[in-house]
Amino acid sequence: MTNMNAIEVSHLTKKFGDKTVVDDISFNVRPGEVFGLLGPNGAGKTTTLRMITTLLKADAGQVKIFGHDTVKEGRLARSMFGLTGQYASVDEDISARENLMIFARLNGLSRSDAKERTTELLKEFSLEDSADKALKNFSGGMRRRLDLAVSLITRPTLIFLDEPTTGLDPRTRTQMWTTIRELVKQGSTIVLTTQYLEEADQLADNLAIIDHGKLVRMGTPAELKREAGGSKLSFTVTQATQVAAAAKLLATQVTGAVRQTGQQLSVSLSKVAELTPILAALDQAKIMINHLSIQEPSLDDVFMNLTVGKN
Amino acid sequence: MEVQMHKGNVVMNTATMAYRNLLKTVHNPDNFMDVVIQPVLFMLMFGYLFGGAIAGGVKAYLPTIVPGILIQTMLSAGTGSGAQIREDLDSGVFDRFKSLPMAHIAPLAGQLFADSLRLLIATVTSLTTGYLMGWRPAVGFGWIVVIGLLAIFTGWALSWIFALLGLLAKSAAAVQSVSLMTMLVLSFMSNAFVPLHSLTKPLRFIANLNPVTYVITAIRQILATGGWTHEALLVVVFDLVVVAVFAPLTVWAYDRN
């Protein structure tokens, strides 16, 4: 079991008509990690997830969940994961408690076990106070929490979350992140799709960036950021007459191109230590600067570099 | 607590799904309105409008129209299953059902079993309205129960067809409009409201091909003779064949979806 991947996806492909929405995607997910599928709207994230979770038939390729083929051993594979879809897939007309009870029973729990688990989950997800109200009166956040609770009934070790925080306010989003981290701490493997870079950065151990159905890059958030280039130094030259001289001086200090916007100059640094000689040289030339900033590369840069201009 | 995974049990899963659908209906009494109002309205309208013209009086028309409206109501209650299934599919709840390790027929069968409650209500309303209008069948109450069950079983069998429609159609609105037309054509192109001999030849030919005609004839015969008939047996066999054909087709469409 130790060397077994939680998920092995190989050459997964799906066509809708003559449009290839998922194009030969392969990746592995290790047990205990948070794996993020990141991509813009319509990139094929949800379609990929639906194929992995057996909701959609793949045109080509194979998916193994803990070594079990999802086509040949569909039922067994299905029993190993929990799924929370993009749209809360809970019943609107009935209460939170009834939803949990019904899904617990459908998962094969006995009546008393189902009751016990329902009470536990209501408490864990702070839904006790509204447990018996119809879901129509629930807020978006409560609905998502219930949805997640439903997919955790059987304590699956593998959890799929399709855009778990889309449409949630910042506070609820942070709560959701806490819940997800809590699950990881308990040993769950999580696969999530997101279009939020911050979310991917916060939660994921490994990321696959998907665009137009293709897997364009894979790696840890840190690796991907490193790839996007080093830190960015930018400052404003106080006196307009000195801008040209400052730009010239900067060019002698770094290898990258110097960009100029009005009186503001910016340049990429391969390492932060390059900053000291630059400042010393500026001081020596008696060039006054202000608004100095150094920006670490963000996943935004990675995302933009890899997907920009194509959509 | 260690959660045990049982192998999905079709009967238990179906019972749970039926319970879910019943809960939904109980929380939403609007779902009953069509099966309560429609038979009352139709019975009154058709009875008092056409009674004189067709049978020479409302009372004389009732033995014709009560079974007719009863089956028409079964048809229209049956169409509700299709619309409900389409709604569930669109809402994403079925995605979750599908990702659960349970029998694939359970969500469908659960829906249809819960819908038999709608059929029961429709039957009771139709027959009661008929009774209040002066319908007095000569046979005992036992036979009334028999024709009620025959009607419900027919409605239930037909709802598998509408369920398939619900799975194949693009939207709930499409299901509803197609179902409505099917219901109207099937119920009017039969002996539900008029005696067959009053029809023109081509129309009579169509009515004789219509299975609804046979169901209504079977019910009228039981009510007239107070005994089980050959035709009634034929209806039961027909219903069983419909279920045997359409239940697997519906599951196939569900898996394909």
Notes on the protein architecture:
Chain B: This is Transport permease protein. Chain B: The chain crosses the membrane at residues 40-62, 141-165, 172-194, 232-254. Chain B: It is found in: Cell membrane; Membrane. Chain B: Residues 30-257 form the ABC transmembrane type-2 domain. Chain B: Keywords: Cell membrane, Membrane, Transmembrane, Transmembrane helix, Transport. Chain A: It is found in: Cell membrane. The complex is a heterodimer of chains A (311) and B (257). Chain A contains 11 helices and 14 strands. The longest helix of chain A is centred in the middle third of the chain and has 16 residues, at 170-185. Chain A has 311 residues and is α/β, with parallel strands linked by helices. Chain A has a 6-stranded mixed β-sheet with strand order 6-7-8-3-9-10, sandwiched between helices. In chain A, strands 2-1-4-5 form a 4-stranded antiparallel β-sheet. Chain A has a 4-stranded antiparallel β-sheet with strand order 12-13-11-14, with helices on one face. Chain A folds into 2 domains: 7-226, P-loop containing nucleotide triphosphate hydrolases (Rossmann fold, 3-Layer(aba) Sandwich); 232-295, Alpha-Beta Plaits. The two termini of chain A are 41 Å apart. Chain B starts with 9 loop residues before the first helix and ends with a helix. Helices cover 81% and strands 0% of the residues of chain B. The model of chain B is unreliable at 1-7 (pLDDT under 50). Chain B has one domain (29-256). With 257 residues, chain B is mainly alpha-helical. Chain B contains 10 helices and no strands.
Question: What are the SSEs and their pairings?
Answer:
The complex is a heterodimer of chains A (about 300) and B (about 260).
Chain A: E1 7-16, E2 19-29, E3 34-38, H1 45-52, E4 60-65, E5 68-69, H2 74-78, E6 81-84, H3 96-106, H4 111-124, H5 140-151, E7 158-162, H6 170-185, E8 189-194, H7 197-203, E9 206-211, E10 214-219, H8 221-227, E11 232-237, H9 243-253, E12 259-261, E13 264-268, H10 275-284, E14 289-295, H11 299-307
Parallel strand pairs in A: 3-8, 3-9, 6-7, 7-8
Antiparallel strand pairs in A: 1-2, 1-4, 4-5, 9-10, 11-13, 11-14, 12-13
Chain B: H1 10-27, H2 30-55, H3 58-91, H4 93-99, H5 106-132, H6 141-168, H7 172-188, H8 201-209, H9 211-225, H10 230-256
